[in-house]
């Protein structure tokens, strides 16, 4: 099973949506594609407008870069004792926490989150039903904003554990997040500037 397929299994809260939204660099149409990408298989992206296709491709490049990056691989090992091969999906969410606290003020994150929801809502008739179902949960629970808080991350991580068929019930993922908080933050700070530079380069293509 690929990293992208694992994220589909965990789709209720298992994708780093804040990072993908942030790495759309202010383009609303790219944002839509970047957010919906994991629900669009293969060449079916060609059914979408060109700008959304660009966002889908950018999302896939971001995921490939992330999964292959040595810092990301190393950080995954901190979570593997609890969730095994699913550690990358959980780490995505944890890195969104550090992104939320690193690049946004509280008010800025609130405004950014509402903008993302508004942009996607305008285009939802174009989007896969499974994504729209997930998106409705996202809006109601305001995931993007709550990534900034430890309580929000706890709910997300524990929700992923409940929904992931192959993760042991009660896997202590949040305890590992707390135990390795500083190390995970250091990994984010090493990794994210490189990801941002890579995404910006491919955004311009």
UniProtKB/TrEMBL annotation:
Keywords: Hydrolase, Lipid biosynthesis, Lipid metabolism. GO terms for biological process: fatty acid biosynthetic process. Pfam families: ACP_PD. InterPro entries: ACP_PD. GO terms for molecular function: [acyl-carrier-protein] phosphodiesterase activity. This is Acyl carrier protein phosphodiesterase.
